[in-house]
């Protein structure tokens, strides 16, 4: 979002902006998937100029964000999606998720989970898996509040060295929860092709000539980064760009590919997708979390079946830096 949009955000009431039915229609579409301006205009049978007007208002209100740009027939197309803010503060406008037809998932951004959401309709058209990247901690909090039915997270408990389980036990005391392992993932420093600044190790993000792009507070990557800074004795104030944030691994890779930043921590799969360089730092566990009664519903049986197929595991592994050997393993707490 632009600096101007952030300034406007402080004076715009999102509720008032959603009183307009055209904006509601745009937001509902962007909650389903990413669209360009021209695609939205076609779906809504409207003029691009009218859709652009509403998009700018929604973006300024913090309800919509641009997530990618692509060259299409010589023109740069911007892709938009509903922001985490839209889901977290505008519950009345959430997609109509029938517990017998769909699953609303808040998650830390994961390419394997996005792949699952794309492939699932092919085997189970009745199951709509809606994935909203908001960060690991916010996902678990939203699950606890009943805003969503499933969460995806990769939170490291620095005292025990265990991923996710200590946080789940703390947030859901006495409530039976199902934890389904998706994969181990490789994260590291994403750098431009050829690595012109010669970034080789974690401590290099504090070099004055480096322009870093961070992840948002509450994301598993940010938790790891802040812990690593503390144990390395590096104040966050020494990291140029520490306060600049991206909500997805793709946004980090895109920022590096476009020259907006020259490093950030993200998934190896995202670096491959944007044809940029990568310096590995650590592996982590990514899990799906949901109440036992939801996990055992008949509706979700096809999703668990798909996750446990060799074909899906291979598709996730091909993304790069994903290790799905234990995919589908279940822990009940």
Task: Walk me through this protein's architecture.
The radius of gyration is 20 Å and the shape is globular. The chain has 15 helices and 15 strands. With 333 residues, it is an alpha/beta fold. Helix 3 (21-32) packs across helix 5 and helix 4 packs across helix 5. Strand 10, helix 10 and strand 11 form a beta-alpha-beta unit. The strands form 3 sheets. Strands 4, 5, 6, 9, 10, 11, 12, 13, 14 and 15 form a 10-stranded mixed beta sheet that branches. A 3-stranded antiparallel beta sheet has the order 1-3-2. Strands 7-8 form a two-stranded antiparallel ribbon. Among the domains are: 3-87, Winged helix-like DNA-binding domain superfamily/Winged helix DNA-binding domain (Arc Repressor Mutant, subunit A); 187-283, D-Maltodextrin-Binding Protein, domain 2 (3-Layer(aba) Sandwich).
Query: What level of helicity do the residues show?
Result: 25-40%
Oligomer kind: single chain
The value of Rg in angstroms is: 20 Å
Order of helices and strands: HHHEHHEEHEHEHEEEHEEHEHEHEHHHEE
**Which descriptor suits the 3D outline?**
globular
Q: Do you know the CATH architecture of the domain at 187-283?
A: 3-Layer(aba) Sandwich
The amount of beta strand, in percent, is 25-35%
The CATH class of the domain at 187-283, by name, is Alpha Beta
In DSSP terms (H or I, runs of 4 or more residues), the helix count works out at 15
pLDDT averaged residue by residue: 87
CATH topology-level fold name of the domain at 187-283: D-Maltodextrin-Binding Protein, domain 2
Low-pLDDT parts are 1-13, 89-97
**End-to-end Cα distance:** 39 Å
Structural class: alpha/beta
